[in-house]
Amino acid sequence: MNLVAVRKLLSWCCFALLWSACNKSTTIGSELQPQNLGVIFTDTVSIETSTILLDSIATTNREIILAGEYTDPVLGQIKAASFFNVQPFNKTFSFGANPQFISAVFSLPINFVYGDSSQVQTLSVHRLTEKINPNRVYYNYDMLNYEPTPVGSYTFSGTQTSAFGKIEIPLSDSFRDEIVNLVNLNANDELTQAELDAFVKGFALVSQGGNAIWGFRVTDQIPAAIEIKFIGDNGSEQIYRIVVRNATSAEDVSNERYNSQRFNHVSANRTSTPLQTLTNAYQTLPSSVTNQQTFIQESLGIRTKVIFPYLKELVKDKTIAINKADLVVYPVENSHNQFYKLPRRLDMLRLDENGKLVKYFLRFAETRLGQGVIIQDTLDARIQAEGNNPFGFDKPFAATFNSISNSYNMEITTYLQYVLNGLNPRYKGVNKFPNSGFILSSDLANTAIYRMIVSSPKRATRKMQLRIFYTIVK
Fold first, then answer.
1. C-beta of residue 472 within 8 angstroms of C-beta of residue 41
2. How far apart are CA 320 and CA 305, in angstroms?
3. How far is CA 461 from CA 4, 19, 377, 407, in A?
């Protein structure tokens, strides 16, 4: 009888045998005891965790642009800024001969704020002095030069944001007038992208002071935009917009180019923090040297590595069928609050036999704005949800935070079975994974500033556990 048949036959009785099984718990990796027929339960599998610094994080063309800074009580000072191109929103437009201006702002729809937004900070918009290269990928460490004098700035606290969930940065009259003159010169024609690009190379959104980082969503439905509101010659109120350029329009993605239009810069000063020695790609710090805790901060490439070093002790000279396996992950108590929120969910990224992230290239064609375009990106392979192809890419498992148990619960039944297959010298099939561990990563990849402090398996309370129901196949 093969392993799949055995699993199907025995999994129905798993929970019926829970009571007796729980009284037969084995410690895999230290005190494994042989057991007879039946479903066996263990929650004492040896787990090793560490904080890992991955390669630089690509932040090109993400839906959320970031700006702000805050000092994390654990991870140090975090700063974020964004760099982006713009595109015309109103195609053919005229301000008329005598516009009566009401306002001119850079409007930014708020997606999230992280940190204490009640403190005063300043956001400012600057013209770039160099262009974004559409043919390269930008990373979290990248920056571009910009003019020192802003075209607009806004000093505020979080209580002064718009009732419509926006931050509106007032623009200078001189910059407003430059835009009006540009548009009126083209009043009988369409203001083209080339003409706008010749007028401005792009913008930088930067922050000074405060203790919060803001995330602004920039999509076709919710555009971040320069908005000039005025009374026209006919007495009606009108709005002219120039929006942050959408990197997924037909005009932006063509000929299989990446076509970079915007990116985020995110940096950290980790001096005098538990992670101050973490400086090189794929370097790890075991939880034993960071007070039995590890860390996740997605946009800085800080994640948690999990490995089960003694799984081979479970196999030895036997064949094992995993009926169910759940990894339970807890945040360290009192490490999160209204300012330092937890990620909504956690993903699990696969590692190859060398302990490096498994990558795959995503490329597909679709129709946008009536034109065929090519979409492409290089992504991290994630552990798939149960019932799907374990070697696939499109059905990843994501663990949402359970506020009742205060944990993330991850089912890794198939993943663990495939790791055990690779450890079993009697197994001759191809359905196997290396026992290299995996990476815990937060959601909103490459844009999230949220962080999590993960409780290690050796912490006194709420420690990480792997709970397994398994059967020894005779």
1. no
2. 25
3. 36, 23, 41, 13
Q: Is 255 helix (H, G, I), strand (E, B) or coil?
A: coil
User: What percent of the residues of the chain are helix, what percent strand, and what percent coil, each to the nearest 5?
Assistant: 10, 40, 45
Q: Which candidate, 390, 371, 370, places its Cα nearest to that of 431?
A: 390
- Range list of H helices, 43-94: none
The model's pTM: 0.83
Structure tokens at 194: 């080339």
Q: Identity (one letter) of the amino acid at 199?
A: F
| Digitized pLDDT (tens) for each residue of the chain, 474 residues in all | 444 444 444 443 443 333 333 444 444 443 334 445 589 999 989 999 999 998 788 888 888 899 999 998 888 999 999 999 999 987 788 898 899 999 999 999 998 899 999 999 999 999 999 999 988 889 999 999 999 999 999 999 876 665 568 999 999 999 999 999 999 887 667 788 889 999 999 999 999 999 999 999 887 677 899 999 999 999 999 999 999 987 654 444 444 445 789 999 999 999 999 999 999 999 999 999 999 999 999 889 999 999 999 988 887 777 889 999 999 999 999 999 988 889 989 999 999 999 999 988 776 665 544 455 555 667 789 999 999 999 988 899 999 999 999 999 999 999 999 999 998 888 888 999 999 999 999 976 556 788 999 999 999 999 999 999 999 886
Rg (CA), the chain: 27
- What are residue 440's phi and psi, to 5 degrees? -85, 125
Give the residues across from 100 on adjacent strands: 231
As a residue count, the chain comes to 474
- DSSP lists the bridge partners of residue 321 as 471
Distance CA 386, CA 7 (A): 13
Query: Tokens 């949220």 appear where?
Result: 450
**42: nearest Cα among 53, 54, 57, 31:** 31
